[in-house]
Amino acid sequence: MTEPAEKISRKPRADAARNRQRLLDAAKQAFADKGPAASLEEIARVAGVGIGTLYRHFPTRDALVEQVYRSETTQLADAATRLGAEHPPVEALRAWLRLFVEYLAAKRIIGAALQTTAGGTTELYAASGAAMTQAIGGLIGRAVASGAIHVDIEPLELLRAIAGVANVSDENAMRLIDILIAGMLVR
Amino acid sequence: MTEPAEKISRKPRADAARNRQRLLDAAKQAFADKGPAASLEEIARVAGVGIGTLYRHFPTRDALVEQVYRSETTQLADAATRLGAEHPPVEALRAWLRLFVEYLAAKRIIGAALQTTAGGTTELYAASGAAMTQAIGGLIGRAVASGAIHVDIEPLELLRAIAGVANVSDENAMRLIDILIAGMLVR
DNA sequence: ACAAATACGGAGGCATCCTCCGTTTTCAAG
DNA sequence: CTTGAAAACGGAGGATGCCTCCGTATTTGT
Questions:
Q1: Residue from the list B165, B181, B182 with its beta carbon closest to the beta carbon of A161
Q2: What sequence ranges are listed for the domain HTH tetR-type (chains A, B) (predicted)?
Q3: Alpha-carbon dihedral of residues A113, A140, B155, B68, nearest 10 degrees?
Q4: Contact indicator for A85, A142 with CB cutoff of 8 Å
Q5: Residue A9 — very low, low, confident or very high, per pLDDT cuts 50/70/90?
Q6: CB < 7 A to strand C: residues 5-64, chain A
């Protein structure tokens, strides 16, 4: 055995990797321009590959959305860690939620993804969801531990609430954040 | 003039009224079963009318959704008035929001409608939206006037926030209501 | 009963969606 | 460098849905 026992034989083909990346680039653009309902056939066209190739790489629309925004959600998760270190718990939470709204504004897909998940079971939970859950969960856990706030709702649901509003108006979403935090403060 | 001056001539045709009702019935069923994206062609098929007839009566999907749930939204609006008379302002608001969540659970479409509106301009605002706006607006106005709460967010946005969560979990939506109200209380 | 006013219905053009499979490309062993 | 099989490509094709348009059928007032 010249290869690690677990992994089997070949290394990924070059053209496959290239096309995958092209698809992700085209998809990112398309989702940004036309929202999460952008045509998959057009994405394939723009990427210069056949529709079949798109489907081979990303079996479902959600799989594609997920991958496209993996980097965004990762950034958001990292920011949570950073903010947690730089600010007192409650302010860190507030700052991160505001950042979340800003991200939603730029990449409407994240919000759509959170909502989409509503309907049925989606792989979306897999990565984006996990990252988000961890980020908000950490910040809230910290704030609760500090004794400043009290929370009896699933952290992820707070994001859903904010996302619902942010899709329509950033301004109102920002105000919602303050209301939510005020509502969780221990009196 | 034997008719009111404004209205012109004829009375609505019998077949038109019948088909309209059939469409509403079929649509109600379809939306309940398959969500707000149910096929319009299938609705027409089930109703036993041509697709053309469906479109004549309801030019857009939203127009149909709107009509289907007009009774629900109307009931909700009436409830707002009633609760407003029976409870102190803040409790009336809380009670109505809980009722709102219960309605969402039963008819997921209302929530979907609120979200749909997000994307673009929709006739949905016309009736359902107006009724909702008025209901929540009234309750909040009253609570603010009583000096108990302070609100700097669009009332309708509160509903969007709640709807975003309610689509996934009633329990969490109910808790969200308490957080929101606590967050708006004047301290 | 009759004509005008209304309403019906579905064919047709267009846009996706997703699958399936014959062809092409890549990789690595010899 | 050859070579053959694994891996990937790509797009035609079948299905569904949207919406419009207009010739045909029904209803209504007189």
A1: B165
A2: 17-76
A3: 40
A4: no
A5: low
A6: 10-11, 13-15, 37, 39-42, 51-52, 55, 59-61
How many residues appear in chain A?
A: 187
B157 touches strand D (CB under 7 A): no
pLDDT tier for residue B15 given thresholds of 50, 70 and 90: very high
Place of tokens 């860190």: A92
Return the closest-CA partner of residue B122 out of B66, B62, B36: B62
Rounded CA–C1' distance between A108 and D6, in angstroms: 40
Could you tell me the domains of chain B?
12-59 (1.10.10.60), 65-184 (1.10.357.10)
- pLDDT, tens digit (0-9, with 9 covering 90-100), for A135-187: 999 999 999 999 999 999 999 999 999 998 998 889 999 999 999 999 999 98
Contact assignment for A182 to B178 by CB distance below 8 Å:
no
Q: Which residue has the tokens 């529709």?
A: A51
pLDDT at A118 over 60: no
pLDDT, tens only, B26-70: 999 999 899 888 999 999 999 999 999 999 999 999 899 989 988
CA atoms within 13 A on the CB side of A134: 15
Please tell me the distance from the alpha carbon of residue A27 to that of residue A24, in angstroms, as a whole number.
5
Rounded to whole angstroms, the Cα distance separating B22 from B124 reads: 21
Q: How far from the centroid of its chain's Cα atoms is residue A127's Cα?
A: 8
Report the C-alpha gap between B121 and A29 in whole angstroms.
24
**Separation between Cα atoms, residue A151 and residue A114, nearest integer Å:** 21
